[in-house]
Amino acid sequence: MLLLRSIREAYFEEITRMIPEYGGHLIVLTHALPDRPEFLSALGKVLPISMVIAVPYSIDNQSLEVIKKKYHVVQPSLHQLSSKTYLQNALSKVVHNEPFAIVEIGGYFAPVVVHLREKYEELFLGVVEDTEAGCRRYESISPPVCPVVSVARSTLKQPEDALVGPSCLFSTEKILRETGFPLSAITALVLGYGKIGRSVARALVSRNLPTIIYDHDPTKRILALAEGFAIPARKEALKNADIIFGATGNMSLSSKDLPILKNGTILVSCSSKEQEFDLVTLKANYKRHQVAPNLDRFENEGQVILLLAHGQPVNFVDNAVIGPVLALVQSEIIVALRRLQEVRCQKGIFEVAEETRRELARVWIKYFSRR
Question: Most buried of the four, 86, 150, 157, 264, by CB within 10 Å?
Answer without folding.
Answer: 150
